[in-house]
Specification:
elongated, about 230 residues, single chain, mainly alpha
C-alpha cells in the first residue's frame, strides 16, 4: 500500500501541509518518497507559487513525477490517488486542450471506480473539463458538464461549492448570449450569497456584464459599485 496522504493534508493551510510532507519525506523510501514529492509540488500550486513549483526545469520533472505517481496508483488500484495525479498534470500542461485531455482521463477513472476517494472527485473533474471546453469555445459541451456538476453538488452539503457550480452554468449561458437565463441564475446567487453573509465579487461582475449586455447601464454601474466596495 502507498502512503496515506489524507492525514497529512490541510487544504486551507498549504504551508502546514508542506511541512508535514517534508517531515514524512525524511524517512520515506521508494514510491512513498515519490508521492510525497508530488504533494509538496501541489502545495505550491495551491498557493499559486508557480515560479517556485516550476523553477530549474521543474515543469518537466513535475510532469514525470505526476506520471510516475499515476502509474504507482494504478498498479496499486488506488483510484483516488490516480485521479489526483492526473488532476495535477493539468497544472503543468496548461493549454486548454491538454487540460481537457487530463481532465477527461481522470473523469473516466472516477466514473468507473467504486472507491469513494475517486468517486468524490467527479463534481470537481466535471467542472475542470467544462472549464477547458469553455476555453476552447465548445460552450454546449461545457454547459453539459457544468449542469452535471450542479446535480452532483446538490447531492452534497457544501453550499459554496454548489453556488460555484451554478455560477459556471450561468457564465457559460452568457457566453452563448442566453442573457436572460444567465441573469436569472446570477440574481438568485446574489440573494443566496447575501443571505449567507458572503457577497461574491464574481457574481457582481457577471451581473454587471449581463446588465451591460441588456443596455441597462444603471444596473451595470450598481453592480460595478458593489464589486468595488468589497474588501480586498
Amino acid at each position: 500500500m502507498a502512503i496515506d496522504l489524507a492525514p497529512l493534508w490541510n487544504f486551507g493551510e498549504p504551508e502546514v501541509s508542506e511541512q508535514r510532507f517534508r517531515s514524512a519525506l525524511s524517512t520515506a523510501t521508494g514510491d512513498d518518497a515519490l508521492i510525497l514529492q508530488t504533494q509538496i509540488a501541489r502545495t505550491y500550486g495551491l498557493r499559486r507559487d508557480f515560479a517556485k513549483a516550476q523553477e530549474d526545469d521543474a515543469k518537466e520533472r513535475a510532469r514525470a513525477a505526476y506520471m510516475r505517481a499515476y502509474e504507482v496508483a494504478k498498479s496499486g488500484q488506488l483510484d483516488g490517488l490516480a485521479v489526483d495525479a492526473l488532476h495535477m498534470l493539468a497544472f503543468v500542461d496548461t493549454a486548454p486542450s491538454d487540460q481537457l485531455k487530463w481532465g477527461q482521463q481522470a473523469l473516466a477513472i472516477a466514473q468507473a471506480s467504486s472507491q469513494p476517494s475517486a468517486k468524490n472527485w467527479e463534481a470537481s473533474l466535471r467542472n475542470n473539463v467544462g472549464y477547458a471546453l469553455h476555453q476552447l469555445g465548445r460552450y454546449e459541451e461545457a454547459l453539459a458538464q457544468f449542469k452535471h456538476a450542479v446535480v452532483l453538488r446538490e447531492r452534497g452539503t457544501d453550499a459554496q461549492a454548489t453556488r460555484i457550480a451554478h455560477w459556471m452554468v450561468a457564465w457559460t449561458l452568457r457566453a452563448q448570449h442566453r442573457t436572460d437565463e444567465a441573469l436569472e441564475i446570477q440574481a438568485r446567487l446574489e440573494r443566496e450569497c447575501d443571505a449567507a453573509g458572503a457577497p461574491d465579487p464574481y457574481v457582481f461582475e457577471e451581473l454587471e456584464l449581463l446588465y451591460r449586455d441588456k443596455g441597462d447601464e444603471t444596473r451595470a454601474s450598481h453592480y460595478a459599485g458593489r464589486r468595488k466596495a468589497l474588501p480586498k
